[in-house]
Specification:
elongated; 3% helix; Jelly Rolls; 456 residues; mainly beta; Immunoglobulin-like; 6-stranded antiparallel β-sheet; disordered N terminus
């Protein structure tokens, strides 16, 4: 969760002011902001942070500033300012001056196990956007459910100092020490001379400054080191393991900042697009399913296993649902729905593993549902099976008597004598879940809580 004060309706707050002292006659000695929860000030650095309730529109905030006697300030006190980005204020008194940076943040609480608030970019809340240099050439926009990094103008390669370099960050609170997994979905359409990095650190990023060590880099996309796999890529950033980074980090309980930044030249067509940022308690080594509870679409790649165009596989409201787009008559093979989802996993230790998932079936006919573990990646438009190992099944022909109407653990049904267990050596595998046929039952086949545990 984010470490902020309790959210309260803006109208219930009076003006909040705080005395921050005097500095050679060029100080902001008092600040009053309508609707603010809290103000924190560093007179040493000149940084002022104003906290607002979640949902506050930051596009037109008018702080009232009290200055040292005889001083003036630009922008002027009481003038509406767009605080979606940090704003610099210059206090001048004769030949003396002092620069302040005022930034606004909103008090938002993450939902569920994800420590990131608004990782799906429903709006701009929860994120502070900054430039890491002074080129003025960076663009970082949040719109239409994604965040996009790009350049304002195309700067020639090698003109360092003029490169785009933008970032976003948010404060998180880790309540329990342990291993955590950061991931996001990224789309890159031909970048060159560009880096993209995600950090977890204990210091807050600063406008106009780089960000790195001692913060820990946990994810990367890099046109120099990983262009062979990332120059054109769409999917989980953790899965690419660029620079041997997979998003995992061990943390003590405490307050941290998750900072995501990208810089360079030529961000590719449409820029670098990011969605579904998540940070959750990592599963123990050998337990490798990411987002098995379907909090969002991250971690899974969805494909059609045929070309009928009739399959539906949606992730929404914490479940995955297989169904048909239209009801095709029984026996029209080739026109049947046949959709799948998969993810790449790393098994760090040889042993016996148990896969399971919760499934709800409300009257299927002529439908199969199968879970495989294999070493080859599924291909859109193609079937999936041998030499991959089938470990779980629901089947209207073989198990219709027990599964036609069923809700619970798929492993417990034992359909086709499969209980989800498999022996694996250390290595890279794909967990593939697919279903096809006709008549998926009322509401489709509903799946949740996909898991993989080491049992021996």
């Amino acid at each position: 969760m984010l470490l902020f004060t309790q959210c309260t309706d803006i109208d219930s707050f009076d003006n909040l002011s705080i005395d921050i002292g005097d500095h050679l006659g060029v100080s902001i000695t008092d600040i009053s902001v309508l609707g603010a929860d809290e103000v924190t000030i560093s007179e040493e650095t000149g940084k002022i942070v104003v906290m607002f309730p979640c949902g506050t529109d930051l596009s037109s905030i008018a702080p009232t500033l009290t200055l040292s006697e005889g001083a003036t300030v630009t922008p002027e006190s009481g003038a509406p300012v767009d605080f979606s980005r940090a704003k610099e204020y210059m206090v001048v008194n004769g030949n003396q001056f002092k620069k302040y940076t005022i930034s606004a943040q909103v008090n938002c609480i993450p939902v569920g196990d994800n420590l990131i608030y608004n990782g799906g970019f429903d709006n701009e809340f929860g994120w502070t956007v900054i430039s890491h240099n002074n080129s003025g050439n960076g663009l970082l926009t949040i719109a239409d459910g994604v965040a996009i990094w790009d350049e304002a103008i195309d700067v020639p390669s090698g003109a360092w100092g003029n490169e785009a370099h933008m970032g976003m960050y948010q404060k998180i609170v880790v309540d329990e020490a342990g291993d955590y997994q950061l991931d996001l979905d990224i789309t890159i359409n031909g970048f060159e001379e560009v880096w993209f990095e995600a950090y977890v650190g204990t210091t807050e990023p600063i406008e106009g400054a780089d960000y790195g060590a001692p913060a820990v880099k946990v994810l990367a996309a890099n046109a120099w080191d990983c262009a062979d796999t990332q120059k054109f890529y769409s999917g989980s950033l953790a899965a690419t393991e660029c620079q041997n980074l997979d998003g995992r980090i061990s943390l003590e309980a405490g307050t941290y900042y998750v900072a995501i930044r990208s810089g360079g030249f030529t961000f590719g067509e449409g820029g670098i697009i990011v969605d579904n940022i998540s940070m959750e308690k990592a599963q123990p080594e050998g337990v490798s399913i990411a987002n098995g509870g379907f909090d969002n679409e991250s971690g899974w790649t969805i494909i059609s296993h045929n070309n009928s165009g009739n399959g539906l596989l949606t992730i929404a409201d914490g479940v995955a649902i297989w169904d048909e787009a239209i009801d095709v008559p029984s026996g029209y093979w080739g026109d049947e729905a046949h959709m799948g989802m998969y993810q790449k996993i790393e098994v760090s230790e040889a042993g016996d593993y148990q896969l399971d998932l919760d499934i709800t079936i409300n009257g299927f006919d002529e439908v199969w549902f199968e879970v495989y573990v294999g070493t080859t990646e599924p291909i859109a438009g193609a079937d999936y099976g041998d030499p991959a190992v089938k470990v779980l099944a629901a089947n209207a022909w073989d198990c219709g008597d027990t599964q036609k109407f069923y809700s619970g653990s798929l492993a417990e049904t034992g359909c086709q004598d499969l209980d989800g267990s498999i022996s694996l050596t250390a290595g890279t595998y794909y967990v593939v879940i697919r279903s096809g046929g006709f008549t998926f039952g009322e509401g489709g086949i509903v799946v949740d809580n996909v898991s993989m545990d080491k049992i021996n």
